[in-house]
């Protein structure tokens, strides 16, 4: 239970009965019509105990919504819920909703899931989709709704394509795997999620990659979202697969001459018609600075997607009097090489996650995964504006967000956290708080600029590409050499996604939201390792900084080829909170799946006994507490407690509390602060006090701002006034812009957002 002061309790009780105001903002300049929205909302402790006690309103009208329990407070009231509803918005517009206490309204759903002889059939009232269980091919059949509940017009018929890969001049497909699995992962009034899992196999049955594909269907909607993950589960970590291609292919009925084809351009959509056999149309991004068009669009100009930064890029569609089909690929150019293609011969709708036509390969090492998010639409109207609205929406899907004051002081879901509002602080503390927050913003802008281009030791690197998107360059080992094995990446040092998620909650700034989501996406796929269940490395983390995304530092810094592929067998580089953040805020099941896998890995260590590097214990405990707060599983909390008791014993037996890794002490203090906030164990305060006092006396010249949170907790105690000045000393060292922009922002920025709480009038008035 969070240790809150009397004033906070009164504020919480007063606010518990208030409605949660949620804003849905269109940020792509593309009008949306009945777009499915999935979002997470934290609730104050004690507000409600069941989703049935909540109602969603828009302009006083009840909105059909599905509300799901996500996590609970210790008193069993709801802490987080996920909402699924549908929203419309003008281009650049905003709609306001209200989540309030009230009797739940029954949704008149037409969304159904039924077994069929080959798998599952989902009907939404707009489309009927059959999905195969064995030999998964994404969609086996898609038909449009006709009159009297019939689905007469078939747009997709049985086929053997779906998820396809090429390597070693051989083709592998998911459709060849006759042992694949298909299940209903989630079923509700507004949304159904199917989960398919299996292998991409050759004609001989050899498996290249493991895949997990989630298909999202929505009540009364023509839209299907796909989250497609491929994993290299080879148990030999040095092994890699050189992918020549990776596609999602859906053959359609649009094969005749004269079929209309549409492509989203940066400024506007363009259209043409397909000719006879062999006719095609495509848009492709070979880099972050160039996209081009071809086929029937040959001669149309492409451009620089990075400079134009348009969310209209990244969708393609085709249609006739039979109807229309389209697909959008999220982060189309950011995760280059990529393509979107239509081929007349089979009416093929193809999303090239690694397009064969570009002849660019990607090395996928053992333990590495990559997830792509696609949005398909099947409609009875051959209308390019409608197709654009339905599929280009994948770039910035509509979501519902609350005000910073609600996230922070009303919900209290993040413990001691306050929004950016200088009026919450006494006058004497405002200058420091203002400077700290300004430095956060400067640091974020600096990191964003370094994603676009960073030069070090004569090599310029960008943070765009199949493996690169979501990360940033850390170091170049040998001057002037662009070999990928010479490039060290940040690897999300100290859970940079979590740090920026907290700053989104505090500020409400979309820049933090977008940065956090892209970093958590990369952490989920690349930094956490993915092997078969039972492999000890499954759920571990890569070493930071990961050279070539997967390697430890070179044994000889003058020879980058001496950097070995490596999986960390400790929790020194573990980071999981950003994954839980992504799940809470967006409902991304893949993020939760990976977060829990990483939590089980951290749990496997039991009491963590490495006293040399405090970050190992710190990040193990932070992971375990995040898993406990999500699941309520007390084994996570008990293991965190055993690690704390080991450190308590270590402090009792050793005059030197730390022998190295002094910059890591703040991570340990943050973990123990969270453990105290949950358990109220007074022994924790004594251990934190010993750590702070020892560092202050023995390492006075090493002041790291990441210690501010632990010091602030001491300052909040009845006898802790002197620690408030010490906390200020440590926060004065915080800067957002560093020579090493990503690592040092993460290292020094940990805990600061919550440390500021102890300077508020509320915290200081508690005594």
Automatic annotation (TrEMBL):
Signal peptide: 1-19
UniProtKB keywords: Signal
InterPro entries from the UniProt entry: 6-hairpin_glycosidase_sf, Beta-AFase-like_GH127_cat, PcRGLX/YetA-like, PcRGLX/YetA_2nd, PcRGLX_1st
Annotated ranges, domain PcRGLX/YetA-like central beta-sandwich: 112-251
Domain Non-reducing end beta-L-arabinofuranosidase-like GH127 catalytic: start-end pairs: 571-642
Any one of the GO BP annotations: carbohydrate metabolic process
Record domain PcRGLX/YetA-like N-terminal RIFT barrel: where: 34-90
A Pfam family matched in the record: PcRGLX_2nd
Presence of the UniProt keyword Signal in the record: yes
Protein name: Uncharacterized protein
């Amino acid at each position: 239970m969070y240790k809150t002061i009397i004033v906070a309790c009164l504020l919480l009780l007063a606010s518990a009965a208030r409605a949660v105001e949620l804003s849905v903002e269109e940020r792509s300049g593309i009008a949306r019509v009945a777009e499915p929205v999935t979002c997470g909302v934290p609730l104050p402790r004690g507000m409600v105990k069941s989703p049935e006690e909540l109602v969603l309103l828009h302009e006083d009208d009840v909105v059909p919504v599905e509300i799901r329990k996500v996590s609970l407070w210790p008193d069993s009231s709801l802490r987080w819920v996920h909402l699924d509803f549908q929203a419309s918005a003008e281009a650049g517009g905003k709609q306001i909703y209200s989540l309030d206490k009230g009797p739940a309204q029954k949704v008149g759903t037409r969304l159904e899931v039924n077994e069929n002889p080959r798998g599952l059939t989902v009907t939404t009232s707009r489309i009927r989709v059959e999905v195969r269980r064995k030999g998964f091919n994404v969609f086996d059949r898609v038909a449009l709704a006709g009159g009297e509940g019939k689905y007469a017009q078939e747009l997709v018929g049985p086929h053997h394509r779906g998820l396809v890969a090429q390597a070693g001049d051989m083709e592998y497909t998911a459709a060849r795997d006759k042992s694949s699995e298909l299940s209903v992962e989630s079923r509700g009034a507004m949304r159904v999620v199917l989960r398919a899992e299996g292998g991409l196999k050759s004609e001989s049955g050899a498996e290249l990659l493991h895949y997990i594909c989630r298909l999202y269907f929505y009540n009364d909607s023509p839209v299907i979202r796909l989250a497609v993950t491929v994993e290299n589960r080879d148990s030999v970590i040095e092994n890699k697969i050189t992918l020549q291609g990776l596609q999602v292919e859906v053959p359609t009925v649009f094969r005749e001459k004269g079929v209309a084809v549409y492509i989203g351009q940066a400024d506007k959509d363009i259209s043409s018609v397909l000719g006879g056999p062999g006719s095609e149309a495509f848009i492709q991004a070979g880099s972050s600075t160039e996209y081009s068009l071809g086929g029937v669009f040959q001669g149309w100009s492409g451009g620089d997607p990075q400079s134009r930064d348009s969310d209209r890029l990244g969708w393609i569609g085709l249609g006739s009097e039979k109807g229309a089909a389209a697909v959008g690929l999220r982060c189309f150019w950011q995760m280059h090489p990529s393509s979107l293609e239509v081929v007349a011969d089979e009416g093929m709708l193809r999303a090239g996650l690694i397009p064969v036509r570009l002849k660019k390969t990607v090395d996928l090492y053992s333990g590495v995964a990559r997830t792509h998010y696609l949005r398909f639409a099947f409609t009875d109207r051959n209308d390019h504006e409608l197709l654009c609205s339905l599929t280009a929406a994948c770039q910035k899907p509509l979501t519902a967000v609350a005000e910073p004051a609600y996230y922070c002081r009303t919900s209290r879901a993040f413990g001691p956290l306050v929004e950016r509002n200088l009026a919450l602080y006494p006058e004497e503390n405002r200058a420091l708080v203002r400077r700290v927050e300004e430095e956060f913003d400067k640091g974020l802008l600096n990191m964003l600029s370094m994603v676009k281009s960073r030069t070090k030791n004569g090599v310029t690197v960008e943070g765009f590409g199949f493996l690169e998107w979501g990360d940033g360059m850390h170091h170049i080992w040998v001057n002037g050499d662009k070999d990928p094995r010479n490039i060290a990446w940040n690897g999300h040092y100290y859970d940079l996604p979590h740090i920026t998620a907290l700053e989104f909650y505090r500020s409400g700034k979309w820049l933090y939201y977008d940065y956090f989501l892209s970093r958590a996406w990369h952490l989920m796929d690349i930094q956490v390792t993915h092997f078969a269940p039972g492999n000890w490395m499954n759920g571990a983390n890569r070493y930071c900084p990961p050279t070539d995304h997967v390697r430890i530092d070179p044994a000889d810094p003058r020879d980058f080829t001496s950097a070995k592929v490596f999986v960390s067998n400790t929790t020194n580089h573990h980071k999981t909170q950003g994954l839980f953040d992504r799940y809470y805020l967006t409902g991304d099941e893949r993020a939760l799946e990976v977060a829990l896998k990483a939590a089980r890995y951290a749990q496997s260590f039991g009491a963590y006994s490495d006293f040399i590097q405090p970050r190992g214990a710190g990040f193990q405990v932070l992971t375990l507490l995040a898993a406990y707060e999500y699941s309520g599983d007390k084994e996570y909390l008990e293991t965190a407690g055993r690690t704390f008791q080991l450190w308590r014993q270590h402090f009792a037996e050793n005059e030197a509390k730390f022998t190295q890794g002094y910059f890591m002490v703040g991570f340990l203090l943050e973990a123990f602060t969270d453990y105290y906030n949950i358990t109220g164990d007074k022994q924790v305060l004594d251990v934190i006090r010993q750590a702070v006092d020892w560092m202050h006396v023995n390492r006075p010249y090493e002041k790291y701002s990441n210690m501010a949170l632990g010091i602030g907790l001491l300052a909040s105690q009845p006898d802790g006034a002197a620690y408030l000045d010490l906390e200020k000393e440590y926060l004065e060292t915080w800067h957002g812009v560093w020579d090493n922009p990503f690592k040092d922002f993460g290292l020094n920025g940990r805990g600061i957002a919550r440390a500021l709480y102890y300077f508020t009038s509320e915290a200081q008035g508690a005594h």
